[in-house]
Amino acid sequence: MPDWIVERGIGETRAALVEDGAILEARVRRDGVTPAGTVLDATLSSVAPRVTVDAGGETFLLPRGASGISEGRSLRIEIIREALGGAEPWKRGLARITDAEPSPPPPLAEGRDGRIDGWDDLLDEARSGIVGFEGGELRIESTAAMTMIDVDGWLVPDKLAQMGAWAAANAIRRLDIGGPCGIDFPTLNGKDARREVDTILADYLPQPFEKTAINGFGFVQVVRPRRRASLSELAADRAPFEARALLRRAGGEIGAIRLVAHPAVAAVIERHPGWTDALARQVGGTVTLRSDAAIPIHGAYAEKV
Length: 305
Prior knowledge:
Layout: E1 3-8, E2 12-19, E3 22-30, E4 39-46, E5 52-55, E6 58-61, E7 74-81, E8 93-97, E9 112-113, H1 119-128, E10 130-133, E11 136-142, E12 147-153, H2 157-174, E13 179-184, H3 191-204, E14 210-211, E15 219-224, H4 231-236, H5 238-250, E16 257-261, H6 263-270, H7 273-283, E17 287-291, E18 301-304
Parallel strand pairs: 1-9, 6-8, 12-13, 16-17
Antiparallel strand pairs: 1-2, 2-3, 4-5, 4-7, 5-6, 7-8, 10-11, 11-12, 13-15, 14-15, 16-18
């Protein structure tokens, strides 16, 4: 039976649905980002060009508007999608007006606490955007409009599309990809071949979702609920992503350590002094930080001192 494991890390909480040692589904909740499902008291801060509210130290967009409420007035909101990260305004969290009482968000997952085996491999998939399968690979990229998945390989087109559909459905679940997602398959000749791919996607994509039929050029669009940033989107915000990954790796050390990181990663850690304090308690020794521009952004490591 699949089992949810919740790992409460430094800077983020992770959850993974694991079966026979394989991660079937994963989720991340970042510290300092208000999760979907939270109900807060807020203040309407702007009605043009976008309707925004301030609550809990964050600014949220109200895509459904706030009819009859003027700027500066109080209201109560429910977060329907957390902020996705980055500096673009469209990546702010989304909210709606509610009459519900203020409340914390639901748990990230219902499961046992523990360390998630295979998490580093999952981060490599999110970081590289490459997911291999028998006969080919997926190339996954987060864009402003949607997540794009390209299916490529060396099988005949019909078989490659079928294997790619299975792999894409599993990757969408494993990387927690929500919102609009476009999947580009090899061009298929005939309705039967396209119908087979459609059936595989319908059988393996996690519910709920909506999708178009695959067109003659091999393209299909899938839309899933989006309550938080996917692992692919988190990986695109490279410095914070790599900083949290470094802290997780370093947590396995014992005694005094030094974190060695690319300057962009080191700067993120320096902005959160509580992170190294928590890591020091975890390893049972002092934690220092050294910036090194010669190492790649994903090459940070911990060394004994």
